[in-house]
Amino acid sequence: MNQTVYHLLHTCKTLKRLKSLHALLLVSGSIDSSDLVLNKIIRLYSRFGATDYARNVFDEITERNPFLWNSMIHGYVENSQHTEAFSLFRDMDVTPLNFTVSSILKALGRLKWLRVGEGMFGLIWKCGFCFDLLVQNSLIDCFMRCGEVDCARRVFDGLEEKDVVSWNSMLSGLEIARELFDSMHEKNVVSWTSVICGYVRKGDMVEARNLFEAMPTKDMAAWNVMISGYTDVGDMHTASSLFEAMPFRDTGTWNLMISGYCKVGELERARKYFEQMPCTNVVSWTMMIDGYVKSGNLHEARYLFDEMPEKNLITWSTMIGGYAKNGKPSAALELFKSFKKQGLELDETFILSIISACSQLGIVDTVESVMSDDVGSRYFSDTRVVNSLIDLYAKCGNIEKASQVFEMEDKKDFCCYSTMIVAFANHGLVEKAVYLFEDMQRKNIEPDEVTFLGVLSACNHGGLVNEGRRYFKQMTEEFKIQPTEKHYACMVDILGRSGFLEEAHEMILSMHVAPTSAVWGAMLAASNVHRNVQMAEIAASELFKIEPENSGNYILLSNIYAAEGRWHDVARVRSLIREHHVKKNRGSSWIELASAVHEFVMGDFSHVDADRICFILSLLNEDMKLSGYTKNKDLHPISTLNPSYLSLSSDTEMDEELF
DNA sequence: GCAGACGTCA
User: B5 C1' – A237 CA distance, angstroms?
Assistant: First the structure.
């Protein structure tokens, strides 16, 4: 009987089938005796992601053997329910199997619970698993994953007095793992790959490479890990030389190369690999489409999209989002409609990516039609979706609606607050941003670096120097958050514009990362406002080093000299421009737009649709106060646009003056 | 027991 049941269970390919068979077995009362059958049921439920059903079965069993425990714990881990796995593990009243220990270590590694992982040593010793290769490899993997925790480091750095114990406990997981690895008598491919992968994750390609070279036999995983490490840092040169040297490649390897070249924007190279590879899959196609979308080539993207044999949810969201990001809301909408006909179930990430694509250009309609859909509205409960909706409305200029959505959300997390604070700051609603930040602290919600950036930029808008200083201090001292260049640039701007040039300069000198052009740029601008030639010279000379090709810096400096009547110096800067062959700065986005519009006006625009024209014009409307133009799709671009409208910026005037 | 490739708010 049991054999037949076992066999029947084996044929269950869907959760629905399994549930009905399970029900049948319960009714006929034929399963309570067999551990084997119960175990199979638990494992199947877990495989279908229904761990709650598995747990119900598990809880009904009075005498559980180690295999049953193992199945349940492993089921949780398989479904990324790591904390559930661990709490069940703690309840175990029988000696665990090595498989179970290995599963639990996997969970601890993903949770980055380093201390608990260390605590496992005793148990492993007691159960006699310390020479078990399976367990040893899992231990290494666990510690390797814990190696990147820096919250421990934050606490550590904040300690007034560091004693031996605290120093010892700061030995990172990576070092524990390495020690373990070095002391192993018998290492296999898995041990090697785990350690290498740990270094790759940490970004230490040198050590990763050393180990890789020392590895006696290299399997596919090892090669792929190395290649992905190089593509991650954009070193396509090394990646491709490894690729060439590889004795075997799978589809994943080829895809790594495609993804790498797409990331650095070398689409022709990516396409060449795509054409050459023996066997493509959905991922290869989707990556190529994404590459074309990012480079603005929607034609080619759509061509591949229509050509590809099967599409998944990601493919659809890439293409739909691609239209939205490139200012084609109606094409996005149309594609969304055909997506719905496919009957594919959408997920929260799908919604998120559409919202984010639309919010970049302020397209509300597409999102609203997705969300008003019966499938879409289910995701209103997802905090992340709500957050991106807030962001969307804010970016579209509808701060009231953004604020309404924010107020409606009852589980506001730090992300939610951050989004709203940034939104207020960008709209110049300084008091509201600051109030919200204070409110957040009253409710004991811990801010992160983005929250601080938001409140600092609010201070910047409002010229709140003292508040800015206080928040910056709070961020670094109380919350131990390392400021990024953006934080510094913001602070320099706040201080500089209020005339505290010395203090701003000191702040730059105290930076632990190399100051970027944004930081020195803020300094230069502030020096201009306060006519401080000496400080301007310092900032400008740094800027010339970082971005010698940016004409704006030379122009600003020469304007400062000119204001002081120092004509010799003005001439000197001019000659500098000639010396460095600095071209006119045409890099800023609105100038690109202007020239795009110019193209329509002057040339053939038959390939350009109304959407795009409308989109560009609406941007121009905002940025350049294009006079007398009303947004209307039916207007003929030639009749409404005249290139002479496009020379409104004061920067451009300076440009013309100088060259 | 190890790895990798596509869409995710501030």
Answer: 18
Rounded Cα–Cα distance for residues A9 and A414 (Å):
46
Name the residue closest to the C1' of B7 by its CA. A314
Alpha helices in A343-413 (DSSP H): 348-361, 364-372, 374-377, 383-395, 399-408
Task: Answer whether residue A104 shows pLDDT above 60.
Answer: yes
Listed as ranges, the nucleotides of chain B within 7 A of a protein C-beta are 1-10
| Euclidean distance between CA atoms A187 and A192, whole angstroms | 7
Mean pLDDT, residues A86-113: 92
Q: Which of A232, A224, A229 is nearest to A207 (CA)?
A: A229
Q: What is the Cα A22 distance to its own chain's centre?
A: 42
Confidence of residue A381 (pLDDT cuts 50, 70, 90): low
Q: Supply φ then ψ for residue A318, to 5 degrees.
A: -65, -45
Query: Could you check: is the Cβ of residue A409 within 7 Å of any atom of nucleic acid strand B?
Result: no
3-state secondary structure of A531: coil
Q: Are A420 and A407 in contact (CB under 8 A)?
A: no
Whether A202 shows a pLDDT value over 50: the answer reads yes
Strand B–CB A256 distance below 7 A: yes
Half-sphere exposure of A402 (CA within 13 A, CB side): 27
Q: How far is CA A535 from the centre of its chain?
A: 37
Residue A513: band (very low, low, confident or very high) from pLDDT cuts 50, 70, 90: confident
* Mean pLDDT, residues A511-523 taken together: 89
Higher pLDDT, A602 or A48: A48
Chain A window 119-148, residues with Cβ within 7 A of nucleic strand B: 133-134, 137-138, 141
Which residue bears the tokens 């070279």? A213
User: Any residues with CB less than 8 A from the CB of A281 and at least 6 apart, and which?
Assistant: A251, A255
- Positions 303-362 in A, CB within 7 angstroms of strand B: 312-315, 317-318, 321, 346-347, 349-350, 352-353, 355-356, 359
Residues 6+ apart with CB under 8 A from A164: none
Task: Provide, in whole angstroms, the distance separating residue A385's CA from nucleotide B9's C1'.
Answer: 7
For residue A102, pLDDT beyond 90: yes
Contact between A360 and A332 under an 8 Å Cβ cutoff? The reply is no
Nucleic strand B contacts from chain A, 493-532, CB < 7 Å: none
> What's the CA A409/C1' B9 distance, rounded, in angstroms?
14
Res. A659 pLDDT band, cuts 50 70 90: very low
Say whether pLDDT at A635 is over 60.
no
Task: Give the nucleotide nearest to A359 (CA→C1').
Answer: B9
First-to-final CA distance of chain A: 93
Residues composing chain A: 659
Tokens 């148990």 -> residue:
A123
Q: Is the CB of A457 under 7 A from strand B?
A: no
The whole-number average pLDDT for the span A388-392 is: 88
Measured between alpha carbons, how far is A158 from A153 in angstroms, rounded to an integer?
8
A140-176: per-residue pLDDT in tens? 888 888 765 444 444 444 434 444 444 444 556 777 7
Q: What pLDDT is attached to residue A237?
A: 94
User: Among candidates A132, A81, A75, A141, which has minimal Cα distance to A106?
Assistant: A141
Rg (CA), chain A: 30
Q: Is the distance between the Cβ of A448 and the closest atom of strand B smaller than 7 Å? A: yes
